[in-house]
């Protein structure tokens, strides 16, 4: 048996042990409280959405809060896209030449930024700027800096070097080669990443209201706590509809870009 096969079998064995331990360590004692009558009640209640909550003109209805949720996602995506530009340039290995240690340090910072969940950022920004949609937009924007910084900087390093070498051969400077050869190759891919993360941000923005960062998150948790299943149903339907519509249009745009 080769060393590679031995390592693969060892990793597979560790994975199986981890799965078995996960199933064994779970607490199944609450299953004795499971009542199918309660499940049936929840299911039938979810089939009767509270349509009176869709729009009532108070500003706290479903239409206003879902619109606010989409705006939070859009503003957060805009903030993250703009502020990620210097991070992208500083974390690209092609920017630093022989001094690759600086690119590695910046990528480490980006990994740290994107490893923190948006909900944690939302809690921090609620304390800094106060509760409201702006805190949610900042939370999504800061996390997006880490995401876009990593993805787009890697694309900068993977571009086709032939046009860049051709421009250097005719006397172009590094800045001109970057502007006219490297950047045009990356922009469509970067735009695709931005659109994709806008979809992700819309889904993330639906939970930020749990910590006071605006959007539909607070009403849905209140409805769950009150066991108001018809209201939960209409909110979930609205979230699904919005996500599906945004996914449809953004996927069409991404296809044209790429």
Key words describing this protein structure:
globular, 11 helices, mainly alpha, 258 residues, MetI-like fold, 79% helix
Walk me through this protein's architecture:
One of its GO terms (molecular function) is ABC-type phosphonate transporter activity. This is Phosphonate ABC transporter, permease protein PhnE. Keywords: Membrane, Transmembrane, Transmembrane helix, Transport. Belongs to the binding-protein-dependent transport system permease family. It is a single chain. The chain has a single domain, classed as MetI-like fold. The mean pLDDT is 86. Helix 3 (62-91) packs parallel to helix 7, helix 3 packs antiparallel against helix 9 and helix 7 (133-158) runs antiparallel to helix 9. The longest helix has 35 residues, at 174-208. The protein starts with a helix and ends with a helix. With 258 residues, the protein is mostly helical. It contains 11 helices and no strands.
Task: Record the SSE blueprint.
Elements: H1 3-25, H2 36-46, H3 62-91, H4 93-96, H5 100-115, H6 118-129, H7 133-158, H8 162-169, H9 174-208, H10 217-225, H11 229-257
Note the run of SSEs as H and E. HHHHHHHHHHH
What is the C-alpha radius of gyration, as a whole number of Å? 24 Å
Give the structural class.
mainly alpha
Instruction: Please give the CATH architecture.
Output: Orthogonal Bundle
The low-confidence runs, each spanning 5 or more residues with pLDDT under 50, are none
Count of discrete structural domains: 1
The name of the CATH superfamily reads: MetI-like
Percent in strands: under 5%
Transmembrane segments: 7-24, 65-89, 134-152, 205-224, 230-249
Family: Belongs to the binding-protein-dependent transport system permease family.
InterPro entries: MetI-like, MetI-like_sf, PhnE/PtxC
Domain ABC transmembrane type-1: 66-250
């Amino acid at each position: 048996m080769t060393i590679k096969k031995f390592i693969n079998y060892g990793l597979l064995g560790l994975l199986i042990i981890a799965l078995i331990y996960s199933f064994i360590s779970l607490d199944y004692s609450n299953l004795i409280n499971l009542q199918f009558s309660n499940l049936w009640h929840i299911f039938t209640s979810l089939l009767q959405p509270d349509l009176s909550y869709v729009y009532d003109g108070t500003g706290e209805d479903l239409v206003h809060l879902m619109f606010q949720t989409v705006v939070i996602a859009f503003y957060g995506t805009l903030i993250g896209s703009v502020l990620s530009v210097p991070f992208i340039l500083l974390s690209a290995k092609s920017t630093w030449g022989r001094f690759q240690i600086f690119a590695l340090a910046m990528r480490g910072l980006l990994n740290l930024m994107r490893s923190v969940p948006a909900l944690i950022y939302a809690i921090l920004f609620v304390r800094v700027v106060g509760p409201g949609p702006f805190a949610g937009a900042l939370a999504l924007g800061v996390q997006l800096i880490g995401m876009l910084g990593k993805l787009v900087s890697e694309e900068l390093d993977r571009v086709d070097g032939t046009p860049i070498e051709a421009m250097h051969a005719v006397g172009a400077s590094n800045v001109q080669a970057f502007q006219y050869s490297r950047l045009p190759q990356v922009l469509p891919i970067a735009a695709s990443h931005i659109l994709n993360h806008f979809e992700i941000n819309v889904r993330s923005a639906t939970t930020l209201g749990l910590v006071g960062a605006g959007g539909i998150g607070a009403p849905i948790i209140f409805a769950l706590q009150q066991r108001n299943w018809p209201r939960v149903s209409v909110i979930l339907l609205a979230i699904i509809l919005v996500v599906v519509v945004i996914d449809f249009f953004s996927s069409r745009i991404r296809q044209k870009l790429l």
